[in-house]
Design brief:
The structure is a single chain. The protein has 642 residues and is α+β, with helices and mostly antiparallel strands. It folds into two domains: 43-180 and 225-358, YVTN repeat-like/Quinoprotein amine dehydrogenase (Methylamine Dehydrogenase, Chain H), CATH 2.130.10; 371-632, Alpha/Beta hydrolase fold, catalytic domain (Rossmann fold). Helices cover 17% and strands 32% of the residues. Strand 18 and strand 19 (255-260) form a beta hairpin. The two termini are 21 Å apart.
């Protein structure tokens, strides 16, 4: 199957211009693509988050325009964004304006260790840690609909579990609202303060919802089911009459239902031909917003709750709409939009429908979008006939007369998903001549319950064999050099890279491992304490280190590193709490004993994912230099790939 070409229509071109996005040719003509440096790609600004100010004249958001994420505010009417924080060392992310004044909430960890605290910036510019203490993790849980208080989850009492605290918005006095001794996940509170929705995972694909009554202190199980089904909290309705939840019980895809609190009746609300990812109400309940994971991109639906009628939104070009926020007055909506060739930007529009206005400009003007590529969705059949969906990127310079090297790109997870949308790293590799197949191997989310669970207790085998079949798909393309195909991935994707080199040593010419698991026994034994509520679910997905140690040893690349004979590069954050540094230290040491080229890059101020621009530049430059040397052709691979 060849990649699917998706042509732009003139109506879509008009929308691109209206959004301030680059206009792309309706029928692109093949041409040489100008190459750009990683510094130019990383000069593209990353932005995220959105919170309206009390007067709805500004939006609070996060940006890495200085090279490190900080908090900014930008006028809704348009204009320059102004910094709110100015950290030069640690990632600082916007949480919320206060609903009635100029105070600001934001979060920060230390060097990527994920021990986030919640901070308050007073109107006079003084910073206050609202969750002080050592070795604790805090999470903002949202505002009450009356905006008189906000919720915070912390594990300060017991590092394994998150308790729920209520903070008074005026005095900042807090009280323990829900004490978590059973390993639940406090996910939401009804506006009348009577009910707390609690999540309880049994496996990564089987979970339950409970409701805790703050008056009687009783807990009610509302998701009893037979077989495997995933239940997760969505929202309480503003009147506190029902809890809305997502479930795939009795179906392949996740749909939206509600549980009526007074009667205990379950009712269907909304479904799609794909997974519904989330659904929530605006503050007053005038609107309900739903996000749908449609074949690797997000599609938004908004309905007027009084009538059930859909809100007509401006026609957008194909891309991702994320982080939808509706103002307290329910008159404005903020969202992010990104395309394959255009990074995410913050937009605002008036409701119920008006032309959107772009508030940020994330693109680097030195990069011509026409030198970048559109992604396409492709599918191929794996070894057992299972269809594997993938996101495909073809360099403009690739042709049958000048065959290109290629990479199988494996996402994290295990249950993650490679999606359409802008990726500076992927576009950088493609711009420099590498075909990239972002494989959604079995076990990936977004393609139904059966597909999602098809990798359970099979890691290192069937999902890896999908990657091998992905390589064969690439070999079938006339413009791909079949002997120069590597594999790249981060986190669980990094594990797949190491597994490929150790368990399928003749398949891939090189491997790029970005903080990947090498020893499942150690990783599962050393998971962060705050993952306690998910620990047994992980064991059932991957394996129990107490009862299945032999199996986990068998699928851990570290114990088979003597079979690695292809060039390998490993990248690691020293403060990573998920895949700890010894995972990379030991696989590097073991692989080097084989006499193959092994490069190792460690960042002392990063965790599970690199967030500082200087480190992103260093990491991607190291990756491209490695690929150019060992895959593109300046150095021959150790042996031709099978």
């Amino acid at each position: 199957m060849s990649p699917i070409c998706r042509r732009k229509t003139w109506s879509v071109l008009a929308v691109f211009c209206a959004l301030g996005l680059p206009a792309l040719a309706a029928n692109p003509v093949a041409r040489p693509s100008r190459q750009y440096t990683i510094e130019q790609f990383m000069a593209t600004t990353r932005v995220s988050g959105a919170s309206f100010s009390s007067d709805e004249k500004e939006i609070l958001f996060s940006s890495n325009q200085t090279g490190i994420f900080n908090v900014y505010r930008v006028p809704v009417a348009g204009g320059s964004a102004l910094p709110v924080t100015s950290s030069t060392t640690d990632t600082t992310l916007a949480v919320s304006f206060f609903p009635t004044d100029r105070r600001v909430l934001y979060t920060r960890d230390q060097g990527g260790n994920e021990l986030n605290h919640l901070y308050l910036l007073d109107a006079d510019g003084k910073e206050r840690d609202l969750t002080p203490g050592e070795k604790l993790k805090a999470q903002f849980g949202g505002w009450t609909r009356r905006r008189d208080a906000f919720w915070v989850r912390t594990n300060e009492r017991d590092q394994r579990y998150f308790d729920l605290y209520r903070y008074d918005a005026a005095t900042l006095e807090r009280k323990l609202f829900y004490r978590n001794d059973e390993g639940y996940s406090p996910d939401g509170v009804s506006d009348d303060g009577k009910w707390v929705a609690l999540g309880k995972p049994k496996t990564t694909s089987d979970s339950d919802i409970y409701l805790w009554n703050s008056q009687t202190k009783e807990t009610r199980h509302i998701s009893a089911h037979q077989g495997t089904a995933d239940y997760s909290f969505a929202d309480f309705d503003p009147a506190s009459t029902a809890v809305y939840y997502l479930t795939n019980d009795g179906a392949e895809f996740t749909r939206l239902r509600r549980y009526v609190l007074s009667t205990g009746k379950h009712e269907e609300v909304e479904k799609a031909d794909w997974d519904i990812s989330y659904s929530f109400f605006s503050r007053g309940g005038a609107y309900r917003v739903t996000g749908i994971n449609e074949d690797g991109r997000t599609v938004i639906r908004i309905v007027e709750t009084a009538t059930g009628k859909p809100v007509t939104l401006p026609k957008l070009p194909e891309g991702d709409v994320t982080s939808v926020r509706i103002s307290d007055s329910e008159k404005k909506m903020a969202f992010y939009f990104s395309g394959d060739r255009s990074p995410a930007n913050l937009y605002v529009m008036d409701l119920p429908g008006s032309p959107p206005r772009r508030l940020t400009d994330a693109s680097n003007k030195e990069i011509d979008p026409e030198d970048l590529v559109e992604a396409s969705v492709v599918r191929f059949r794996s070894f057992d006939g299972m269809t594997i969906p993938s996101i495909f990127f073809k360099p403009q310079q690739a042709a049958e007369s000048r065959k290109a090297p290629a990479l199988v790109w494996v996402h994290g997870g295990p249950g993650g998903q490679t999606r359409k949308g802008y990726s500076a790293g992927i576009q950088y590799l493609v711009n420099h001549g590498y075909v990239v197949l972002g494989i959604n191997n079995r076990g990936s989310s977004g393609y139904g319950k059966t597909f999602y669970t098809a990798d359970d207790q099979k890691h290192g085998r069937e999902p890896l064999w999908d990657c091998v079949e992905g390589k064969k798909y690439l070999q079938s393309l006339p413009y791909v050099d079949k002997d120069r195909i590597g594999i790249i991935g981060g986190s669980y994707g990094g594990y797949m890279v190491l597994a490929a080199l150790a368990f399928q040593p003749d398949q891939f010419a090189v491997g790029v491992d970005i903080f990947g698991v090498s020893n499942w026994v150690r990783t599962l034994e050393s998971i962060p304490k705050w993952w306690e509520s998910q620990r047994l679910a992980l064991y059932k997905e991957i394996g129990d280190p107490e009862t299945q140690k032999a199996m986990l040893t068998e699928i851990s690349p570290l114990f088979h590193a003597d079979k690695i004979r292809r060039p390998l590069i490993v990248l690691q954050g020293a403060n990573d709490p998920r895949v700890i540094k010894p995972e990379s230290d030991e696989i590097v040491e073991a692989a080097r004993k084989n006499g193959v080229p092994v490069e190792y890059v460690v960042f002392t101020d990063e965790g599970h994912g690199f967030t500082k621009r200087k480190n992103e530049i260093s990491s991607w430059k190291a990756i491209l230099d490695f690929l150019d040397k060992y895959l593109k052709g300046t150095a021959e691979p150790a042996k031709k790939a099978a």
